[in-house]
Amino acid sequence: MAETIGKILFTEEQIRRRAEELGAEITKDYEGRELICVGTLNGAVMWMCELIKHINLDVRLDFLSAHSYGGGTVSTGVITVTKDLEFDIQGKDVLIIEDIIDSGNTLYYLKHHFFPEKQPRSVKICTMLDKPARREADITADYTGFTVDDLFIVGFGLDYDQRYRALPYISYLEG
Ligand code: IMP
Ligand code: MG
Predict the structure, then answer these.
(1) Is residue 39 scored above 90 in pLDDT?
(2) pTM attached to this predicted model
Protein backbone atom coordinates (compact mmCIF):
# COMPACT_ATOMS: atom_id res chain seq x y z
CA MET A 1 0.00 0.00 0.00
CA ALA A 2 1.71 3.14 -1.20
CA GLU A 3 -1.20 5.52 -0.91
CA THR A 4 -0.85 8.69 1.13
CA ILE A 5 -3.38 11.00 2.72
CA GLY A 6 -3.85 14.45 1.24
CA LYS A 7 -4.75 17.75 2.88
CA ILE A 8 -7.59 18.08 5.35
CA LEU A 9 -10.75 19.04 3.46
CA PHE A 10 -13.02 19.43 6.49
CA THR A 11 -11.97 19.54 10.12
CA GLU A 12 -13.83 17.90 12.98
CA GLU A 13 -15.06 21.34 14.03
CA GLN A 14 -16.39 22.16 10.53
CA ILE A 15 -18.20 18.83 10.40
CA ARG A 16 -19.69 19.39 13.85
CA ARG A 17 -20.94 22.84 12.88
CA ARG A 18 -22.50 21.57 9.66
CA ALA A 19 -24.18 18.72 11.57
CA GLU A 20 -25.58 21.31 13.96
CA GLU A 21 -27.07 23.30 11.07
CA LEU A 22 -28.57 20.28 9.35
CA GLY A 23 -29.83 18.87 12.66
CA ALA A 24 -31.71 22.12 13.30
CA GLU A 25 -33.17 22.03 9.78
CA ILE A 26 -34.29 18.40 10.18
CA THR A 27 -35.80 19.18 13.61
CA LYS A 28 -37.86 21.95 12.04
CA ASP A 29 -38.94 19.90 9.01
CA TYR A 30 -40.22 16.98 11.11
CA GLU A 31 -41.61 18.99 14.03
CA GLY A 32 -43.93 16.96 16.25
CA ARG A 33 -43.20 13.71 14.38
CA GLU A 34 -41.23 10.60 15.18
CA LEU A 35 -38.23 9.92 12.99
CA ILE A 36 -36.43 6.68 12.25
CA CYS A 37 -32.83 7.43 11.33
CA VAL A 38 -31.28 4.64 9.28
CA GLY A 39 -27.50 4.74 9.12
CA THR A 40 -25.71 2.91 6.34
CA LEU A 41 -22.94 0.75 7.74
CA ASN A 42 -20.08 1.20 8.18
CA GLY A 43 -19.29 4.52 6.54
CA ALA A 44 -22.09 6.68 7.92
CA VAL A 45 -21.57 5.83 11.58
CA MET A 46 -19.43 8.82 12.57
CA TRP A 47 -21.63 11.27 10.68
CA MET A 48 -24.75 9.73 12.18
CA CYS A 49 -23.38 10.12 15.73
CA GLU A 50 -22.57 13.75 15.01
CA LEU A 51 -25.89 14.54 13.35
CA ILE A 52 -28.36 12.88 15.74
CA LYS A 53 -27.02 14.89 18.69
CA HIS A 54 -28.54 17.91 16.97
CA ILE A 55 -31.90 16.41 15.99
CA ASN A 56 -34.34 17.40 18.70
CA LEU A 57 -37.14 14.91 17.93
CA ASP A 58 -38.37 11.51 19.07
CA VAL A 59 -35.62 9.68 17.18
CA ARG A 60 -35.05 5.97 16.81
CA LEU A 61 -31.97 4.45 15.24
CA ASP A 62 -31.63 1.58 12.83
CA PHE A 63 -28.86 0.38 10.54
CA LEU A 64 -28.54 -1.08 7.11
CA SER A 65 -25.62 -2.55 5.24
CA ALA A 66 -25.65 -2.16 1.46
CA HIS A 67 -22.66 -2.67 -0.77
CA SER A 68 -21.78 -1.59 -4.26
CA TYR A 69 -18.01 -1.70 -3.85
CA GLY A 70 -15.96 -4.87 -3.93
CA GLY A 71 -12.96 -3.04 -2.44
CA GLY A 72 -10.78 -0.51 -4.22
CA THR A 73 -12.12 2.71 -5.63
CA VAL A 74 -14.50 1.77 -8.45
CA SER A 75 -18.23 1.09 -8.05
CA THR A 76 -19.58 -2.17 -9.49
CA GLY A 77 -23.14 -0.82 -9.80
CA VAL A 78 -24.60 -4.01 -8.27
CA ILE A 79 -26.17 -3.44 -4.85
CA THR A 80 -26.59 -6.10 -2.21
CA VAL A 81 -28.12 -5.61 1.24
CA THR A 82 -26.21 -7.72 3.76
CA LYS A 83 -27.89 -6.37 6.90
CA ASP A 84 -31.59 -5.52 6.92
CA LEU A 85 -33.51 -3.16 9.25
CA GLU A 86 -34.62 -4.24 12.73
CA PHE A 87 -37.72 -1.99 12.86
CA ASP A 88 -40.95 -2.31 10.95
CA ILE A 89 -41.00 1.07 9.21
CA GLN A 90 -44.48 0.82 7.68
CA GLY A 91 -46.18 4.21 8.03
CA LYS A 92 -43.07 5.80 9.57
CA ASP A 93 -40.92 8.75 8.55
CA VAL A 94 -37.47 7.51 7.61
CA LEU A 95 -34.25 9.48 7.21
CA ILE A 96 -31.43 7.58 5.51
CA ILE A 97 -28.10 8.77 6.83
CA GLU A 98 -25.36 8.20 4.27
CA ASP A 99 -21.64 8.91 4.20
CA ILE A 100 -21.18 9.91 0.55
CA ILE A 101 -23.13 9.84 -2.71
CA ASP A 102 -20.81 8.96 -5.56
CA SER A 103 -22.36 7.11 -8.55
CA GLY A 104 -25.67 7.31 -6.65
CA ASN A 105 -26.39 3.66 -7.43
CA THR A 106 -26.63 2.58 -3.79
CA LEU A 107 -29.08 5.28 -2.76
CA TYR A 108 -31.09 4.97 -5.95
CA TYR A 109 -31.66 1.32 -5.16
CA LEU A 110 -32.46 2.02 -1.51
CA LYS A 111 -34.79 4.92 -2.19
CA HIS A 112 -36.67 3.47 -5.16
CA HIS A 113 -36.68 -0.28 -4.46
CA PHE A 114 -35.60 -1.34 -0.99
CA PHE A 115 -37.52 1.21 1.13
CA PRO A 116 -40.77 1.51 -0.89
CA GLU A 117 -41.36 -2.23 -0.44
CA LYS A 118 -41.54 -1.60 3.30
CA GLN A 119 -44.18 1.12 2.85
CA PRO A 120 -42.84 3.92 5.04
CA ARG A 121 -44.74 7.21 5.24
CA SER A 122 -41.75 9.07 3.82
CA VAL A 123 -38.08 8.55 2.97
CA LYS A 124 -35.52 11.33 2.86
CA ILE A 125 -31.75 11.29 2.60
CA CYS A 126 -29.12 13.11 4.62
CA THR A 127 -25.61 12.64 3.25
CA MET A 128 -22.41 13.95 4.79
CA LEU A 129 -20.79 14.34 1.36
CA ASP A 130 -21.97 14.68 -2.20
CA LYS A 131 -19.55 13.90 -5.06
CA PRO A 132 -21.59 14.84 -8.14
CA ALA A 133 -18.76 14.40 -10.68
CA ARG A 134 -19.31 10.69 -11.17
CA ARG A 135 -23.08 10.46 -10.79
CA GLU A 136 -24.75 7.66 -12.77
CA ALA A 137 -28.15 7.44 -11.08
CA ASP A 138 -30.62 10.32 -10.88
CA ILE A 139 -30.61 10.93 -7.16
CA THR A 140 -30.13 13.94 -4.90
CA ALA A 141 -30.02 14.16 -1.12
CA ASP A 142 -32.56 16.19 0.83
CA TYR A 143 -29.82 17.33 3.21
CA THR A 144 -26.14 17.56 2.22
CA GLY A 145 -23.21 18.29 4.51
CA PHE A 146 -20.60 19.25 1.93
CA THR A 147 -20.02 18.88 -1.80
CA VAL A 148 -16.62 17.47 -2.79
CA ASP A 149 -14.57 17.26 -5.96
CA ASP A 150 -13.84 14.01 -7.77
CA LEU A 151 -11.39 12.67 -5.19
CA PHE A 152 -11.29 9.41 -3.29
CA ILE A 153 -12.35 10.56 0.14
CA VAL A 154 -11.23 8.97 3.41
CA GLY A 155 -11.76 9.72 7.08
CA PHE A 156 -14.70 10.45 9.36
CA GLY A 157 -16.13 7.01 8.60
CA LEU A 158 -15.00 6.71 5.00
CA ASP A 159 -12.55 3.97 4.14
CA TYR A 160 -10.14 2.73 1.56
CA ASP A 161 -10.17 -1.07 1.89
CA GLN A 162 -11.50 -0.67 5.45
CA ARG A 163 -8.69 1.66 6.54
CA TYR A 164 -8.74 5.33 7.59
CA ARG A 165 -12.32 5.26 8.90
CA ALA A 166 -11.28 6.52 12.34
CA LEU A 167 -9.57 9.71 11.14
CA PRO A 168 -11.37 12.58 12.93
CA TYR A 169 -11.39 14.72 9.76
CA ILE A 170 -12.22 14.38 6.06
CA SER A 171 -9.31 13.99 3.64
CA TYR A 172 -8.54 12.15 0.39
CA LEU A 173 -6.10 9.68 -1.11
CA GLU A 174 -3.23 11.11 -3.06
CA GLY A 175 -1.36 9.58 -5.96
P1 IMP B 1 -22.33 5.04 -4.80
O2 IMP B 1 -23.30 3.89 -4.86
O3 IMP B 1 -21.36 5.02 -5.95
O4 IMP B 1 -23.03 6.38 -4.66
O5 IMP B 1 -21.40 4.84 -3.56
C6 IMP B 1 -21.90 4.44 -2.36
C7 IMP B 1 -20.84 4.03 -1.36
O8 IMP B 1 -19.54 3.88 -1.94
C9 IMP B 1 -20.69 5.09 -0.30
O10 IMP B 1 -21.68 4.97 0.68
C11 IMP B 1 -19.31 4.80 0.21
O12 IMP B 1 -19.33 3.79 1.18
C13 IMP B 1 -18.56 4.33 -1.03
N14 IMP B 1 -17.79 5.45 -1.61
C15 IMP B 1 -18.11 6.21 -2.68
N16 IMP B 1 -17.19 7.18 -2.90
C17 IMP B 1 -16.27 7.02 -1.94
C18 IMP B 1 -15.06 7.74 -1.59
O19 IMP B 1 -14.64 8.72 -2.22
N20 IMP B 1 -14.37 7.27 -0.52
C21 IMP B 1 -14.79 6.20 0.23
N22 IMP B 1 -15.90 5.52 -0.03
C23 IMP B 1 -16.64 5.91 -1.11
MG1 MG C 1 -17.41 2.18 1.75
Answers:
(1) yes
(2) 0.94
